[in-house]
Amino acid sequence: MSPSPSDEHVPRLRLAGVVPAAGASARMGRPKALLDAGGRSFVASVVGALVGGGCDPVVVVIGAGQPEVRRRAEGAGALVLENPDPGEGPITSLRLALVALGPGVDGVAVLPVDHPAVRAETVAVLLDALRDCGAPLVLPTSGGHRGHPAVFHRRLFAELLDPALEGGARTVVHRHLQEAGLVDVDDPGVLADIDTPAAYRAVYGASKEP
User: I need a labelling partner for 147 at 20 to 30 A (CA). Which of 3, 34, 168, 173 fits?
Assistant: First the structure.
C-alpha cells in the first residue's frame, strides 16, 4: 500500500537564532551584553531564550575586543562571530550571521542583546508559527504592540543582504507587514528594550544600577 500524504515525512524547517551584540552601548554607558539580567548576563539570557526555544544554531555577533562577551555567549551555547565594522548598525551583524549560516537554515529569529527578558517559550511559539503559517515573517505582539524577536523566512534573506537596503531589518519588516504572521504572546519581555540606565531600572528595580 502506498503511504498517504499524511504519512510522508515532511522535513521541519531548520531555524537559527541571531543576536546582534556589536554595538557601542553608548546610551547605556557600558556593554549591555554583560549587564545582569537577574543572575545571568544579558547575552547569556538572550542566547538561552533562543536555544531553549529551538533555534539551532544560535550566532552572536560581537564587536572587536570583547573577550568576556565571547566567553559568556559561548558558555551559553552560541557560536560567536566578530563584526570588524559595526558602524552601520545591527544590519551589518545580521548580514555576517546570514552569510556564515549559509544555505543550511530556513529562517532566523533575530533577538537583540538588549531584550534579555524574552522567554524561551515565546521563541518556541514564534518558530512554530513560521513553520505553520507560511508567512515570510513572524512577529510577536503584546498589548497591541509589535516586539522582538522577528523571525524571517529565508525568502527574505536576499532583501536583508541587499547592500542598497536603507534602514536595516526594520525596513524589511515594514515592507512585509501585510503578509506577516502576528502572534499575540503573554510575554512583556518582547517589548522590553533595555538600552538606557532608566530602562534597566524600570525592569529590574529602581534601586538597581546597570
Answer: 34
